[in-house]
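# nightly structure sweep
# worker-07 picked up a monomer target from the shared queue
# config: single-sequence mode, recycle default, output format = structure tokens
# input follows
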Amino acid sequence: MNTLPRQGAPSAGNAPNLSRRAQVVRAPARRPGADLTDRYVARPSQTRPRVLIVTPQPFYEDRGTPIAVRYVASALGALNVDVHLLAFPVGRDIGMKNVTIHRCANALGIKQVPIGFSLRKLALDGGLWRSFSRLLAYRRFDVVHAVEEAAYMASVLCPPLAQRFIYDMASAIPTELMRNSAVKSALLRTPLEAVQRRVMHNASHIICSAGLASYVRAQAADARVDEWQYPALPSAVSTHDLNSLRSELKIHPGQHVLLYTGSFAGYQGLDLLLAAFARVSKQFPELVLVCVGASESDQARWSMAPDRQFDGSVRIVSRRPRSQMPLYMELADVLLLPRVGCQNVPLKLYDYMAAGKPIVATRQPGANRLLNEHRAFLCDATAESLADAIVRARSHPAQAAWIASQAMRYAEQHFGWRSFVEFVRHIYLQVIPPGE
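# output follows
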């Protein structure tokens, strides 16, 4: 196999935290404001580790998996790793320290990839496979970080090359495919799970969404597995911007906002939410439901019916840049998470908890890892139970404020950027131990 020579040694002032050969020692006490990389010092003779992240997603787009991949790539870059990121030829380029973006071919000229299974995604997966195999043929990587179905590719391509890979498991693919009517079949589940177990067995490590570790262990008892806890989005918002948004959405003084953010996919529970709001709005006519994240097709489906049914008390808002989400959350009086049948934790929950606003959420295996009765108004996935939880949040402001403060305190303790970088470093040092 043709390989490129490893990169030259960095200076001590630019020393990486992940080392294959260097002896890593504690640095002196970190000065206030210093970068996390100052916490470790490596000998100058060391070479930089190289990691390939393979993600079968548009990159970059403001939606779940691409956001998570950006976090991981940025954390590795902060650890002075030479990161190569292979993604679909869809999305926008962004600058990240120590990160080089590669894109697979796009013979069909695809310009957009919907969330979930689709023929467009399948076509691009073929191009991703070819680009993935070429990168492995011409470069040597210390670790391949394979996201979602890219781990299935890695399970085939990496073992013959003695190439280690991490399986980044955002969701259980057999379970997700069973939700899709185009491929839904009980006959498919058993072989899909058998293939998934093989992938888990071949992986050096599995990092999954919070709530999926028990599923992984049930499928592969000897797997080395950890669960992600992502950082929360900073939430500083100006009064001017907030007032402008209220005016734009025609939210009048005395009205109160229930906010949902995210995609309008079926598992997000928007139908359930509208049914619950129909009950709540009769008791609290001053409430306005704002749903942010609609695609063009979503808007065509949702915009008219809710307005007719709720006399203009529902706002359907198109997708917005993630940088605007703190503004929308500051607008809200209550944050809503009405998901149905989901095992993983959505990224927005980390931001919700850090926002300092009361959360109303359906009980789900993933979200239950972060939420309890002290951090959210929890309910069953029924319109009646969801409506009751919203009523409790609005009827007991002191309890709502206390619950919001408990969620925010938990977020401050667990969802910081430095904690996330340390978590990534810890995972990678298990896969590439120092002194190897």
